[in-house]
């Protein structure tokens, strides 16, 4: 029954020897992980900046707001289509150098977006950025796991993912505020310059890691022996499904959060950036909760994060006429959702055996970005056909589906592991 447990238990699947026995003690790589987190900050800011500048870009390019929202879909679907093949094509390249190259490509993509004369040109620039983004996350998703022993993966991932949280705290709100004051094009120029600075920091401070090898090259005799399928694959697949559905729901609503704040809650344009900042700060609190409270209880943290997200978005949808309640619900949503990505990524890295960790990271990235792109597309369709007011309700429904999957899979895992626990608890009388 241990293999059955792997299907449902994403927090760990392969029995591991104590890290103290197998891995030498070494200083925790704070500088390298903070540098990696800075690269994540720039990447996520580049991906999500159009959500804060949606009204300005819409007017400047002469297209509807839903079409600007679809820029997120173009970006994300490019990641979905290219991350796995590009990851395979570049698997022999040094991981460290790939991150530097990717940041340079990000800079080029943002410069092209800034000078774009038409909407179609912006789409092409975003597609270029999407290719780089897919490669970036296929590398970064496992990089932290290569820098630290397995027992410290959760801590390392929290630090790395903090860059994404800070992108919502500072990157998107500051880019939005700058776009409001100086024009949306200048925001992308500044972001491109920061990408180049980030490339220099990665070159100087991020320690290189060896590409993982699952073994020596197969000999003629070994080539004839069929390798067994990795037993951790089902757990990784389940995590990818959970991640994809969660992101579809989230980005169906968050992609269009600026119009919702302006039209649904009736706030002024000058309050959009501060509210996004408050949302990001709340997300940072959620990330802190993961690192201090739920790092050792990922299943409980994920269930609470999903449940509180559903509750807060429900309150936000129901109390649009009561601004105080709506803003509190909006901030609570930010805190709850801030817990979800680090918990899901930590579960993925715990679930995947070291031999498939890079591949699992690529597929996790695919699922994450399929959810982002699918969510932005779903939101655009809902806005065009039924209106913005029903988008949060759809989001809550998808969160409920994910919550059921997580609870049921965890219960099945507990049942599947019960015989093993019972057998281990019984004394061995065979020698008596």
TrEMBL record:
Pfam families for this protein: MFS_1
PANTHER family reported in the protein's UniProt record: CHLORAMPHENICOL EFFLUX PUMP RV0191, PURINE EFFLUX PUMP PBUE
Annotated ranges, domain Major facilitator superfamily (MFS) profile: 32-412
Locations listed in the record: Cell membrane
GO molecular function: transmembrane transporter activity
Family annotation (InterPro entries): MFS, MFS_dom, MFS_Efflux_Transporters, MFS_trans_sf
Keyword Metal-binding belongs to the record: no
Membrane topology, as annotated: Multi-pass membrane protein
Residue ranges of the TM segments: 28-48, 68-90, 97-117, 123-144, 156-176, 182-203, 233-253, 265-288, 300-317, 323-340, 361-383, 395-418
UniProt keyword terms in alphabetical order: Cell membrane, Membrane, Transmembrane, Transmembrane helix
SUPFAM superfamilies per the UniProt record, alphabetical: MFS general substrate transporter
Domain of life the protein comes from: Bacteria
Chief location of this protein within or outside the cell: membrane
GO cellular component: plasma membrane
Name of the protein described by the UniProt record: MFS transporter
Keyword Lyase listed: no
């Amino acid at each position: 029954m241990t293999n059955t447990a792997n299907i449902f238990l994403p927090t760990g699947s392969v029995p591991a020897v104590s890290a103290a026995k197998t891995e030498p003690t070494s200083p925790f790589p704070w500088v390298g992980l903070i540098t990696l987190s800075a690269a994540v900050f720039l990447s996520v800011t580049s991906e999500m900046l159009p959500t804060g500048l949606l009204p300005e870009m819409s007017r400047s390019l002469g297209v509807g707001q839903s079409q600007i929202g679809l820029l997120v879909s173009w970006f994300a679907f490019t990641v979905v289509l290219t991350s796995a093949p590009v990851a395979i094509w570049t698997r022999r390249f040094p991981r460290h150098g790939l991150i530097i190259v990717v940041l340079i490509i990000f800079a080029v993509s943002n410069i092209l977006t800034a000078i774009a004369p038409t909407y179609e040109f912006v789409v092409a620039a975003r597609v270029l950025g999407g290719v780089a983004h897919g490669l970036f996350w296929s590398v970064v998703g496992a990089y932290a796991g290569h820098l630290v022993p397995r027992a410290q993966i959760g801590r390392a991932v929290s630090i790395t993912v903090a860059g994404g949280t800070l992108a919502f705290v500072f990157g998107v709100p500051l880019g939005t505020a700058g776009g409001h004051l100086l024009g949306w094009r200048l925001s992308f120029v500044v972001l491109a310059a920061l990408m180049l600075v980030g490339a220099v920091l990665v070159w100087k401070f991020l320690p290189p890691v060896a590409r993982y090898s699952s073994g020596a090259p197969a000999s003629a005799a070994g080539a004839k022996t069929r390798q067994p399928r990795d037993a951790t694959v089902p757990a990784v697949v389940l995590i990818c499904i959970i991640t994809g559905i969660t992101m579809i729901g989230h980005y169906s609503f968050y992609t269009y959060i600026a119009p919702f704040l302006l039209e649904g809650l009736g706030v002024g344009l000058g309050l959009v950036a501060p509210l996004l900042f408050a949302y990001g700060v709340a997300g940072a609190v959620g990330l802190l909760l993961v690192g201090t409270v739920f790092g050792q209880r990922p299943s409980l943290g994920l269930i609470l994060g999903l449940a509180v997200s559903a509750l807060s978005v429900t309150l936000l949808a129901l109390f649009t006429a009561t601004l105080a309640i709506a803003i509190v619900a909006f901030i609570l949503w930010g805190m709850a959702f801030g817990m979800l990505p680090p918990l899901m990524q930590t579960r993925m890295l715990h679930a995947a055996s070291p031999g498939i960790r890079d591949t699992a990271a690529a597929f996790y990235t695919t699922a994450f970005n399929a959810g982002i792109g699918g969510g932005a597309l779903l939101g655009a369709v809902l806005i065009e056909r039924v209106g913005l007011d029903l988008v949060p309700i759809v989001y809550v429904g998808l969160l409920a589906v994910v919550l059921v999957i997580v609870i049921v899979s965890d219960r099945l895992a507990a049942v599947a592991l019960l015989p093993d626990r019972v057998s281990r608890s019984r004394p061995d009388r065979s020698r008596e």
